[in-house]
Design brief:
By secondary structure, the chain is α/β, with parallel strands linked by helices. Among the domains are: about 90 residues, Winged helix-like DNA-binding domain superfamily/Winged helix DNA-binding domain (Arc Repressor Mutant, subunit A), CATH 1.10.10; about 55 residues, no CATH class; about 130 residues, 3-Layer(aba) Sandwich (Rossmann fold); about 80 residues, no CATH class; about 60 residues, Arc Repressor Mutant, subunit A (Orthogonal Bundle), CATH 1.10.10; about 130 residues. It is built from 45 helices and 15 strands. The strands form 4 sheets. A 5-stranded parallel β-sheet has the order 9-10-11-8-12, with helices on both faces. Strand 5 and strand 6 form a beta hairpin. The longest helix has 24 residues. The protein is flat, with a radius of gyration of 36 Å. One of its GO terms (molecular function) is DNA binding. Pfam families: BTAD. InterPro entries: BTAD, P-loop_NTPase, Sig_transdc_resp-reg_C-effctor, TPR-like_helical_dom_sf, WH-like_DNA-bd_sf.
């Protein structure tokens, strides 16, 4: 059903998509019946209840209702009026009903205020008050309207108060006062309305006006109700009488704080802790330290008798002038000692932007030691290194970065719409609030995609930046230079060198490559270290990248080569650890490949040779083939390895796979490299198996077995291929035990699991399901014990699903196929998806869920993009014949084909999501 919109406040309106249907509703009684059902759509309505609502004095009301409902069904879209004896409206997904939106609005606006977002609260309140400007079903007088009308009146009053509070928080005193006066006129005894009006006067410094309003209310309550103001109003009146107007008010930011609710709460908690003397908000430039500090300071101001004082250190040129700035901030003169001025104070002192005057930090220590009632909140890109200091690391925004971008863009263009490109741009900008705000300022000139493409250029220009920003925050480059200008020559050199790492690196490796220590960069928030790994924000990397020299890039590429040599061979074990080790450095590996292809072709070829197994084992065949195509091997060993890489990465069934495998066998043989020759032989065996040439595959397996000699690992691997290439479970039994024995002796536990699973698949093909089940249970235990990757677990669970499906254990089959899809979608391998989807289609067919079965069958077919082994196709065809063909006949061929086409139109991600729903 198209989106449904219903308005009951004011003239009744019914929209379905772009169509207006209220004029189609039959008579005044028909419109009342529709309105009644819409007001009570959260439940079913009996015929008798509807009769009472429409005809208070019934005569032949049952007949009237029957006729009315018939006309109403005819006027409404099919299926909207649901039921016979008990009636309800079926409005599809996410309908909009004005009274429901109005009822939910006060809580939504309250939540926005609570999380420090008064702009959203104001929009919500104002838009809903516009709805409630019109009465509910004007001209209709029925008892059943009394309660909802009272509820909407209460919502309107609450929204007026929220509108005023939000406007006041945004500094719009006139709008806040207008809302407060409307509320007071509407509900003259509502104390919160009077409190809001009094606060509006006080916010403008009109203390006498505020006191007059308080006195007038107090008199009215006493004379008309015989009561006194409540605690909140009394406290407000007492504060006004003392004229506690803060001579040092906190600055009110021009825009709301976005995405920092949790951080604000944590900072507030620490500031309220008596053990906290100096709290430093630490983070890179543009991350939002100052905004966070001011928000937290406002939240805790009431906890300090003397409030909050802010010392702005941005314009302070020398550390020697910091004491004077602090003294002036707390109400003293430039020559006075801040610690002496604050000795009896109870306040929060905010020292903003301390990193460039870090040598003055002992002055803060003196305040902490000599002023027990003072807590110091510092923002800095570098820690102060004081004993009393506690650190709070301010991180870039996560998902809230998109919200921030949208709010800033919508301030320029109310019609701005968030698209997937916004999330991509925010990720490019590391979630840095300053960078996001600067980028959003360009949305009035360029589409988001263009900003993303040119962000380095645009964020270096001040054309679109707000004029009230400090000069160092009008461009991202200016913010970065503020930090970099405070580095020594050696530190700046290390900063540029570290930018060679795309995605970070282990600390020891990074220091070896750059030839220096990272600690100074970490101390200045230019590099972050976590769990032994160092990383730099992308914005910093992009700024430094043009200055990286070839010597550093060569050392980086050489480190990547050593990493690939260390972990690449481990990909043959099917264990997760080698893949994870290389996966962590994927950004570095790709950067090294790009540079070496242009500047060090021999190094590039060697790197490709060592990465071929990673590309194969992690499902990155296309990426690997692209790199191999531009590789220029300088040695016979590199040429042999690259031929092998092309063989294992080429699609099954392609002539290149067989050709390159045969060439690799000869190349490795010429080098006397037996392991290489065996690996290339395995690639050729897979090509033969794909073509259904079982005898050739078995002969090649025997040849690999001879080459392996007595080496238990290679012998076990060769026996695995011999076992599977035997083509039948009866013959596979002859060699599987020896294969398992050899692999176990070599510690290749996951390889044991995979040969057991492969032989189990032969058993499934031969319908030896009991034997297959035993083998698969053993395989799954071994895979988990050995630390198999998700893809390998998926393969085993898929085979278990087939056994369960063919033996009528449908619940077990569904669990197994769901596990296969869950594990399979974690990686880049797509070859497990068709089996998992088809298996669930078979389960659905067996359970009589024909529509689901057809959709999943279509999705499975669409996912099958690569050639698969003939034995795989034989088993999958059995699923189709036993389960899908009968289901198609029962469902109807035409309906099945339509559903199948709908499933085929899904992307792999959408198909898996639907299958697992």
């Amino acid at each position: 059903m198209e989106p449904v919109t219903i308005r009951l406040c004011g003239p009744l309106e019914l929209r379905v998509g772009e169509r207006r249907l209220e004029a189609e509703l039959p008579s005044r009684q028909g419109r009342m019946a529709f309105a009644y059902l819409a007001l009570h759509r959260d439940r079913e309505t009996s015929r008798d209840e509807l009769i009472d609502a429409l005809w208070p004095e019934p005569s032949n009301s049952q007949a009237l209702l029957t006729a009315l409902l018939s006309r109403l069904r005819h006027a409404l879209p099919p299926g909207m009026l649901h039921g016979r004896a008990r009636l309800s409206l079926e409005l599809g997904e996410a309908p909009w009903v004005d009274v429901e939106a109005a009822a939910a609005a006060p809580a939504a606006a309250e939540r926005s205020l609570a999380r420090g977002d008064p702009a959203t609260a104001l929009r919500t309140a104002s838009a809903t008050l516009e709805i409630l400007r019109h009465p509910l079903l004007p001209g209709v007088e029925r008892d059943w309207l009394d309660a909802p009308r009272r509820e909407l009146d209460e919502a309107a009053a609450a929204l007026l108060e929220l509108e005023g509070r939000a406007a006041l928080a945004l500094g719009d005193g006139l709008r806040a006062e207008a809302a407060a006066r409307r509320l007071v006129d509407r509900e003259p005894y509502r104390e919160s309305g009077h409190a809001l009006l009094i606060e509006c006067h006080a916010a403008r410094g009109e203390i006498s006006k505020a006191l007059n309003a308080y006195d007038a209310l107090r008199t009215r309550l006493r004379e008309e109700l015989g009561t006194v103001p409540g605690p909140r109003l009394r406290a407000l009146g007492e504060r006004l009488l003392r004229e506690e107007v803060d001579p040092h008010p906190l600055p009110r930011p021009a825009t709301p704080l976005v995405g920092r609710d949790a951080d604000v709460a944590r900072v507030v908690e620490r500031l309220k802790d008596p053990a906290t003397r100096i709290l430093t908000l630490l983070g890179p430039g543009g991350v939002g330290k100052t905004r966070l500090a001011l928000e937290a300071a406002e939240r805790v101001a009431a906890s300090f008798r003397d409030g909050v004082r802010v010392a702005w250190l941005d314009p302070v040129a020398e550390p020697a002038y910091v004491q004077a700035t602090l003294a002036r901030a707390v109400g003293g003169e430039a020559g006075q000692d801040p610690a002496h001025l604050l000795s009896d104070a109870r306040l929060l002192l905010v020292a903003d932007n301390f990193e460039h005057v870090i040598e003055a930090a002992p002055g803060l220590a003196a305040i902490a030691e000599g002023c027990p009632g003072v807590t110091v909140l510092v923002t800095s890109r570098e820690r102060l290194r004081l004993r009393a200091e506690r650190l709070f690391h301010v991180e870039p925004l996560g998902a809230d970065a998109v919200t921030l971008f949208a709010e800033r863009a919508q301030a320029l263009d109310a019609d701005f719409q968030v698209t997937p490109a916004v999330a991509g741009l925010c990720a490019q900008l590391d979630g840095l609030p300053l960078a996001i705000e600067l980028a959003a300022a360009w949305t009035s000139s360029y589409p988001v995609e263009e900003i993303a493409r040119r962000h380095r250029e645009l964020l270096g220009r001040a054309d679109a930046a707000a004029r009230d920003l400090p000069p160092r925050q009008r461009t991202l480059h200016a913010t970065l230079e503020w930090s970099l200008n405070r580095l020594s020559a050696a530190e700046r050199e290390a900063f540029v060198a570290f930018a060679v790492f795309n995605g970070g690196a282990p600390v020891a490796s990074a220091e070896a490559v750059i030839g220096g220590r990272l600690e100074p960069l970490v101390a200045k928030s230019l590099v972050r270290c976590r769990g032994g790994r160092a990383a730099m924000l992308t914005t910093l990397r992009e700024y430094a990248a043009p200055a990286i020299g070839d010597a550093i890039r060569r050392r980086h590429a050489q480190w990547c080569l050593e990493l690939a040599r260390e972990h690449g061979p481990g990909m043959l074990s099917f264990e997760a650890a080698p893949e994870q080790a290389l996966e962590r450095e994927l950004g570095n590996l790709r950067a090294a490949l790009v540079w070496s292809a242009m500047h060090a072709p021999r190094l590039h070829a060697d790197l490709c040779a060592e990465l071929r197994r990673f590309w194969w084992g992690s499902g990155r065949a296309d990426e690997g083939l692209r790199e191999l195509d531009r590789a220029r091997p300088a040695t016979p060993a590199a040429r042999a390895a690259l031929l092998h890489g092309r063989a294992v990465l080429s699609p099954f069934g392609s002539p290149e796979r067989r050709r390159d495998a045969e060439a690799a066998i000869h190349a490795f043989a010429a080098l006397g490299d037996r392991p290489g020759e065996i690996e290339a032989t395995f690639a050729l065996i897979e090509a033969e198996l794909n073509d259904g040439e079982w005898e050739r595959a078995e002969r090649l397996g025997q040849r690999a077995l001879v080459l392996a000699g007595d080496d238990p690992l290679w012998r076990g691997r060769a026996l695995s291929f011999v076992t599977f290439a035997s083509g039948a479970i009866a013959r596979a039994r002859e060699t599987i035990d020896e294969s398992v024995r050899c692999l176990s002796a070599a510690g290749a536990t996951v390889e044991v699991a995979m040969i057991l699973s492969s032989v189990a698949f032969l058993a499934i093909r031969d319908e030896a399901y009991d034997e297959a089940a035993e083998l698969l249970d053993e395989a799954l235990d071994a895979a988990r014990a050995g630390g198999a990757g998700a893809h390998r677990i998926a393969q085993i669970r898929g085979n278990q699903g087939l056994v369960a499906l063919f033996t009528g254990r449908h619940a077990a089959a569904e669990r197994a196929f769901r596990d296969e899809l869950e594990h399979g979608r974690e990686g880049r391998f797509r070859n497990v998806l068709p089996e998992g989807l088809l298996g669930l289609a078979g389960v659905a067919a067996a359970m009589g869920e024909h529509l689901r079965s057809a959709r999943l069958a279509g999705a499975a077919e669409a996912c099958t993009t690569a050639a698969i082994f003939a034995v795989d196709e034989l088993v999958l065809e059995r699923v189709r014949k036993r389960f899908l063909v009968p289901a198609c006949a029962a469902f109807g061929d035409a309906r099945w084909r339509r559903a199948e086409r709908a499933g085929a139109s899904l992307s792999p991600r959408e198909a898996v999501t639907e299958a697992l729903a």
